[in-house]
Specification:
This protein has 435 residues and is α/β, with parallel strands linked by helices. It is built from 18 helices and 14 strands.
């Protein structure tokens, strides 16, 4: 970001903070998820940073926007820990859900979970001074000009890993090329998922020598994150042993009505059908229970342990969706029948389950294309197609097994991406140590 862009960007931020300060203050005070994190994101009450014994230990800061990006980064963080046992690994996520998921899955591999600063000059300076990273790794997206500019000012190298450029993002980047081009060129290297992503970056004026194509970390992440939560089986979830289980995972508003309607239609011809609905926002559990009740569907919530019974389980808890995918017969991945850019179809595919998703899969465009081409997934465009595809899969065990196997074979064939990313990290750190 050049000086002129920086000036106007910070002028805009300053005016916005001044104008909306009262509203922001009230929102932070009244909303627990903001109240618990805002002070630290502003650079206050940070506590003691590990590794202050004076000896050199490389400090690697990994940042992931939210749950999806944390999932992509899991295997990379684990390998970073193995290859740098004496190093200090810092991890941040911009959302509370992302941070909670990271703490659950990466606790053994991360030295310190830290806040990511709000992109105000003074909060960025405070947090970077406190963290003192030798390398910053950004996973996929979450570009903040002041933060990246401060890293460059201090000559702290930054890497973009698992980079991608969706069609909608490319339109925005092109429109504001003067703003984004210096932002992207501030990275020492940009590891893109596909050659097309690299082409898009070159078209935006990004230095070609900074671009590498290393593949999608989500394939390795799916393999490493496929373990089932201990003690979680059909009996523990009160799912009948002989039931055919359909999991609708990571659903959004506008999709649950479609899912419930399809369930009611399918249940007429499939009496042993059991549905699990896992909303992307687990706080919507009560909303979904009321929605099911209005339709006369007997449903119960996972968060209310031991309460209720029925043919529909609302999974309103964190960290259990992967285990439910392992137990199901067919999966639908949400955020794809509404404009939410989709969620990760590899999560059920790695367990050998046939996958359904809608047309809105921008965030997983490459993966969804790969799964469709391999025969491990089917794309549906509306409620009618969803119902028809489910009827075929639920009625044919052989077809379910074939689709699930082909999805697993695809994932196995794509493994090894983490190693290529790790080699890039090592080369950058080696340059810093020589410097």
């Amino acid at each position: 970001m050049n000086m002129v862009s920086a000036f106007f960007y910070n002028l805009f931020l300053t005016v916005g903070v001044i104008v909306f300060a009262p509203l922001l203050f009230v929102k932070v005070i009244l909303t627990p998820k903001y109240r618990s994190r805002s002070g630290k994101r502003l650079g206050f009450a940070l506590g003691e940073m590990p590794g202050g014994d004076g000896s050199y230990r490389p400090r690697i800061w990994v940042h992931a926007l939210s749950v999806g990006e944390v999932a992509s980064a899991r295997n990379l963080v684990r390998e970073l820990r193995r290859s740098h046992p004496q190093g200090i690994i810092l991890f941040s996520s911009a959302t509370r859900a992302g941070e909670a998921f990271a703490r659950t899955t990466l606790q053994e591999h991360v030295d310190c979970f830290i806040p990511f600063p709000l992109d105000l000059l003074w909060s960025v300076k405070r947090l970077v001074s406190w963290a003192r990273p030798d390398l910053f790794i950004l996973v996929e997206t979450d570009f903040w000009p002041n933060f990246l500019r401060e890293l460059n000012r201090r000559e702290i190298p930054s890497l973009l890993v698992n980079g991608r450029v969706s069609e909608s993002s490319l339109v925005r980047y092109r429109r504001f090329r003067w703003f984004f081009r210096p932002l992207f060129n501030s990275f020492q290297a940009l590891a893109m998922q596909t050659e097309q992503d690299a082409v898009s970056m070159r078209q935006l004026g990004v230095d070609p020598t900074r671009l590498v194509v290393l593949g999608n970390l989500k394939y390795d992440a799916a393999l490493s994150g496929s373990s089932v939560k201990a003690g979680l089986d059909r009996a523990a979830l009160r799912i009948p042993e002989q039931a055919l289980v359909w999991v609708a995972g990571s659903t959004h508003r506008g999709e649950e009505e479609i899912v419930f309607a399809a369930f009611q239609t399918l249940a007429r011809s499939c009496a042993n059908l059991f549905l699990v609905v896992a909303p992307r926002n687990v706080e919507r559990g009560g909303e979904l229970a009321a929605m099911a009740a209005r339709r006369g569907i007997p449903a119960f919530r996972r968060s209310l342990a031991g309460a209720g019974e029925g043919s529909v389980l609302i999974l309103d808890t964190l960290g259990e969706l992967a285990s439910l995918y392992a137990l199901c017969d067919v999966a639908f991945v949400g955020g794809s029948l509404v404009e939410e850019r989709g969620h990760n179809p590899l999560e059920p595919a790695v367990h050998g389950k046939p996958v359904l998703f809608g047309p809105c899969m921008e965030d997983f465009a490459e993966i969804s294309r790969d799964l469709l081409a391999a025969g491990g997934a089917r794309q549906v465009h509306d409620a009618e197609e969803l119902c028809a595809a489910l009827a075929i899969l639920l009625g044919d065990a052989g077809e379910r097994e074939r689709a699930g196997r082909q999805g697993q074979e695809l994932i196995a064939a794509r493994r090894g991406v983490t190693g290529a990313h790790l080699a890039l990290v090592r080369s950058v750190l080696a340059r810093e140590e020589r410097g």
